[in-house]
Amino acid sequence: MKQILKKARVIDPSSNLDEILDVLVVDGCIAAIEKSVDISGAQILDLSGMILTPGLIDMHVHFREPGYEYKEDMETGSRSAAAGGFTAVACMPNTMPPVDNAAMVEYIRSRASKIGLVRVFPVGCVSKGREGREIAEMGDMVQAGAVAFSDDGNPVSDSSLMRKALQYASMFDKAIIDHCEDPGLFEGGQVNEGYISTLLGLAGIPASCEEIMVARDIILARDTGARVHLTHISTKGSVELIRRAKAEGVRVTCDVTPHHLILTEEAVMGYNTCAKMNPPLRTREDVRALMEGLRDGTIDAIATDHAPHSQDEKDVEFDKAAFGIVGLETALGLILTHIVGQGELTLYQAISKMTAGPAKILGVDAGRLAVGKPADITVIDPDMEWTVDKNKFLSKGRNTPFDGWKLKGRAVMTMVGGTRHSIIPCEKF
Amino acid sequence: MLSQKNLLGLENMTQQDIELILDTADSFKEIIDRDVKKVPTLRGKCVVNLFYEPSTRTRTSFELAGKYLSADTINFSSSTSSVQKGESLKDTAKTLEMMGIDAVVIRHSSSGAAEFLSEHVSAAVINAGDGTHEHPTQALLDMLTVREKKGTLKGLKVAILGDILYSRVARSNIFGFTKMGSSVYVAGPQTLMPPAIEKTGAKVAKSIDEAVEGADVVMALRIQLERQKKGLFPSQREYSRLFGIDKKRLSLAKPDALLLHPGPVNRGVEITSEIMDGTQSVINEQVKNGVAVRMAVLYLLIGGAGR
Fold first, then answer.
1. Which domain holds residue A47?
2. ipTM of predicted complex
3. Do A345 and A322 share a structural domain?
4. Which residues of A are catalytic?
């Protein structure tokens, strides 16, 4: 089967591409990217006015399966990802049981391939049972297809374990993804420590809670020569530590979520549990530093930390509410409207942080358009205006602080291995 | 009547509303001294005291306030209710709603619990202390006590001392006294000082002595002794020496300064027995005014003909 995607603005940061081109897809693979492609017998999609990018990658999602299917499962998670314009996701292993062995990695991969809407890259646990004591069977998991290791949800709090994990993972050139949090400083924390925590009488989480672990991980990465990835960083201090470490040649990378770029701690006023996340929303100054970090390359990727929860886990007293929000279906619209639209990043930079950036960290052959490679593509209508309606989410999670937000720009189609997934009713497709 | 339907805190309450509550409390106070302590003002109204934390004085005070006004008051404490069976606050709220109550008084260990409840019931919600957030009726009774003695709250120097971080009494008093024109100074161990507290309008004194110096009102807060185990201060002995109020420290305040404490007092820790039982102490008046203030709040929230 031949398809020609015509006249879209093709943006692929991994090959320095940003121009109006035609893309030919033959039998699921990209066969040509040229000014004009004309081949008889091909199905033609006119994409003028649209943006065509490598399939977007979200390197931090929680699909909750197995064990917490009441929050999300592989199928609803995959549909949610496709609806948000993603063609690939990396699934965190904090399921029940956790993904800490090769059989579990294979289970995740086989479930995902049967569903087939997005590519799922499993992340394995750093420690057996996510208990933070002994390193898990990383070698087996790599052979089964794990792309990185993380005890996400928890930090790797034991520095000795972290050091061993870094050394061990470096044999496979896989990154350890750490959720940076000092457990002692976190103790019972609910929101960013500052005026808002004072006003609301909620236990504060100081910036130092994150930054101490960022510093520790940098020191251990330098010490071992291994690769560490610090996920969902949220403070100015973290950005500064990572910037300096990168300049010194330490193999550290990091990502940030859309919500930490767009919201501040004030979003929790009125005890809004949909603005309760870990790390917490921070201050305007932190947001500015995160934006600068994205621009100067300190921050490599944007990832959603898609964390679906049931209504009952959020519609409770603030300190009893679960941490986290869903992100897959709002991420792109938020980034286009509030980050690109506000001139904080160029469109090209933003696409880079959602394609080439995460692909490089995970070491996966994705996030780029190349002749002969599978056609994983996202098509974005940059002018489409839409309103976030949590009740229309394909995710089981409704926990978003963005319900009712008016956004401009949305993915209208994804293609995974040449198979089209139309996301929203659109007369063009 | 008040400009709002609930009493959740003083942060967002207007000065006019505070004045109205204090004036109403003033006029209700004589009922407490009557031989027959009952007026029919809230006859036919039902008030539920929903207490998720142990409390003697606040719960009794609300119960009496309701009874003196002829409301039917029901006590609901978490140890003897279906909360023990795992019922959520949201479901409890729905249950109460169906029973047709007029007001719910809630004491809860979670900050924001009163506001949460108010989103799930149509009855008036009165916050009787939510976590480390606010305790508005305590601050109102403190203000009533001070106003009675000083004639005004305007221009007074009020020192609030001790565990500001975990104190809902401190927050409500900072908002209340500041709105009424007092200057509020806070002091205590740095480990128990909330971040950016100065943005609330309170001034942070460098020491207890600096806060007390020339004060019209000296308010010591209760220190939860378990905070010591969490390493927030080294010992009771050092706490009382550095942050406790004794006669000598109190003498730094104005000669006619008032000594307040929300109770219950750890005698010899926050304040010495000598000054607690001394002439400047208004701790007993605070308790009496508590009933009057709660009568006023109940009346103003559910006493109107429209409800």
1. 2-52+373-422
2. 0.94
3. yes
4. 305
